[in-house]
């Protein structure tokens, strides 16, 4: 699977994750999000930027949904739940936001 962005072909693996994460841009994120059926609103970008920050500035950390909910409760308020994240990334907030953010596929199992 590949993504077409501004006349360039961005190579992805069979699961849609970028082969070369350095090719990631916001335009590439838009192409991946379109393929995933995800709308990139302000909250979605907050999650993507959080995931990228954790990965690049915290030794390759890829938070799971439980840790994402904890973080975003502090940012968005106590009403934030796992459901809030799934509304933005219906196929799994941790994996889908990482894919759109140009991060490598996580090998951990889902859940808490």
Automatic annotation (TrEMBL):
Localization in the cell: Cytoplasm
Transmembrane segments: none
GO molecular function: sulfur carrier activity; transferase activity
Pfam families assigned to the protein according to its UniProt record, in alphabetical order: DsrC
Enzyme Commission number: 2.8.1.-
Main location as per UniProt: cytoplasm
PANTHER family in the record: SULFURTRANSFERASE TUSE
Function as written in the Swiss-Prot or TrEMBL entry: Part of a sulfur-relay system.
Family: Belongs to the dsrC/tusE family.
Protein name: Sulfurtransferase
Species annotation: Thioalbus denitrificans
Lineage, opening ranks: Bacteria, Pseudomonadati, Pseudomonadota, Gammaproteobacteria, Chromatiales
